[in-house]
Amino acid sequence: MEKYSIEPYKEEQSPLKDFREEEAYLRAKKRVEAISGFYWHLASYVIVNVFLILLIGFNAGFSGFGPYATAFFWGIGLLFHFIGVFGFNFLLGKNWEQRKIEEFMQKEREKDSKFNGYE
User: Fold this and answer.
1) How many domains does the chain have?
2) pTM value surpassing 0.70
3) Is 73 among the domain residues?
4) Is residue 5 part of a domain?
5) Are 67 and 52 in contact (CB under 8 A)?
């Protein structure tokens, strides 16, 4: 199975447009592979750590840090993998700070207009 297949250019389109589309396709494919890799990492994390916690827990007891140490330290690595794939702005979005600034400015404008309306 080929990882990438290169198709010949169509004569109707300009080579520059084809190059841009091919570059965009390769970037999108790389991003999808990174996301897929993260989800496989997450699945293996859950499966292996459930097994280890149960195995260590039943043999040595569930108390203390021992049964959970692997899950904790691997979880730190998984967190860094998540940040590497999705970035820091995953929950808040790219323009979160700008949107909040505009929201607060709009509230200030509304306060000023209410205050100025009572004079």
Assistant:
1) 2
2) no
3) yes
4) no
5) yes
